[in-house]
Each structure stands twice: as C-alpha cells, then as structure tokens.
C-alpha cells in the first residue's frame, strides 16, 4: 500500500493532482490508515497508470472516467489495450506526417494550397487513420486497406512521396496533350510504374485501387490524384486499345 505522499514521489504526479482525481472519483484510494491518511493499492497504481496514458493520448478526464467505468480488464489486458492505443496513435501521427509532407511538397509544385486536403488533415487530427480510407471500403478488402494504410504510415519515404507527387504533377501539367501521343503514354507509364513500386507490384490491389480511383472521393489516401488526372489516364488507356496501365 502507498500513502499519497509516497505515490506522488514514486510517480511524479503531484499530491494536488491526486487530490483532484480522488475528488472527481477518477482514482479513489482503496483504504485509509487509522489516522485517516489515504492508502493506494497496487490496483490503484495501475488505474493511475491507465489514466496518465489515456490523458497523454488526448482523452479528456470525463472520457477517461467513462472508459475506466466500463472496463473490466485485468492488468495484462489493460497494458495490452494501452499498447494498441499507442500503436493507433503512432499510425495516426505517421499518416499526419506523410500528409503534411505531401501538402508541403505540393505547394512547391503547384504554388497554392489544396484546401479540401487541409480539411481532410484537420479531420485526421480528430479521428483514426482508418477513417481516411472509409470512402474506398466497397472497393478494397480489409487486407488491402491495411496495405494502403501501412504505405501511408510507414512504407513511404520522403523520396517516395516526392516521386509520387512528381508523376501525378507531370500529368496535371500536361492534361492538354493528345491522348494518342507518345508523350501522353509515357506520362501514364511513369505513373503506373510508380504505383507498382508503391504497392509492391500487388496486381490485385492495383486493380481494386484503380476501380476505387475511378469512383474518386477526394482525400489524403491517394493525394494528389484528382478526377482530371484519372480521366486523362483513362483517355490514354482507351486510345491504346484499353491497355491497363494500373497493373
């Protein structure tokens, strides 16, 4: 058992904070000494650890209170839950990093800010990374969505992002080209080669991704692809007898 002073010393949490947590019913000591001093059990310490972890991840004290109230986890399950929460937070932050890098590079290429993408990034600050892929759920399997998510949160280097933005940017700068021209075909081939590289030459995923893109919903998942770029690729493919550049 730990007195409030000893618990404060061992954890770095101030006595004032522990007093407040007790006051609002977040962490109440299990017992008291004969003199009325509060005593915290090992379970109380684990509860404090969970509170601090959830607070660090941005949950409000009211939200934390609800989470703990509805939880029947033992110590090992509690730690595992926190590990999963940390992993999801890492994924979200990594996707935010990739998205912000993408927007930063795109401003250099385009000279302007893409506001719909900025709004998507703002939403990502408040939601899980998987939410960015929800518009494509009917086209991509759970495993495929995981691959796309992993690509966004870890497998793309800054160089990959630059190359992707360049091949898409090159198409956007040349939408006026005759779809039958060799120059147009080379642009689309470069795009297809970069897509192959990004998705590990996964033919089935590329086919499903292309179907998703043709039913495009703007967002950060395939940024900076837009309908003009997609329609250009389709026109070039049609002019070449329906060649599939996505595989």
TrEMBL record:
Domain of life assignment: Bacteria
Start and end residues of each HTH merR-type domain: 1-70
Entry keyword set: DNA-binding
UniProt keyword DNA-binding, yes or no: yes
A Pfam family recorded for this sequence: MerR_1
Organism phylogeny: Bacteria, Bacillati, Bacillota, Bacilli, Bacillales
One annotated GO molecular function: DNA binding
Protein name: MerR family transcriptional regulator
tRNA processing found in the keyword field: no
């Amino acid at each position: 058992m730990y007195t409030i002073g000893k618990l404060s010393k061992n954890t770095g949490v101030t006595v004032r904070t522990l007093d407040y947590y007790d006051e609002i019913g977040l962490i109440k000591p299990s017992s008291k000494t004969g003199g009325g001093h509060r005593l915290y059990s090992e379970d109380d310490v684990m509860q404090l650890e969970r509170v601090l972890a959830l607070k660090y991840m941005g949950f409000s004290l009211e939200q934390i209170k609800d989470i703990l109230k509805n939880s029947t986890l033992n110590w090992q399950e509690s730690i595992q839950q926190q590990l999963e929460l940390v992993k999801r937070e890492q994924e979200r932050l990594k996707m935010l990093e990739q998205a912000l890098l993408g927007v930063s590079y795109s401003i250099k290429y385009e000279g302007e800010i893409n506001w719909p993408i900025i709004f998507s990034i703002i939403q990502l600050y408040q939601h899980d990374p998987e939410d960015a892929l929800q518009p494509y759920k009917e086209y991509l399997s759970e495993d495929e969505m995981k691959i796309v998510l992993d690509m966004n949160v870890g497998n793309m280097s800054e160089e990959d992002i630059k190359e992707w933005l360049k091949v898409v940017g090159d198409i956007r700068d040349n939408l006026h080209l005759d779809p039958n021209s060799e120059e147009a075909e080379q642009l689309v081939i470069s795009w297809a080669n970069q897509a192959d590289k990004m998705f590990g030459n996964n033919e089935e995923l590329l086919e499903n991704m292309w179907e998703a893109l043709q039913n495009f919903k703007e967002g950060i998942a395939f940024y900076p692809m837009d309908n003009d770029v997609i329609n250009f690729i389709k026109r070039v493919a049609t002019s070449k007898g329906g060649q599939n550049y996505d595989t």
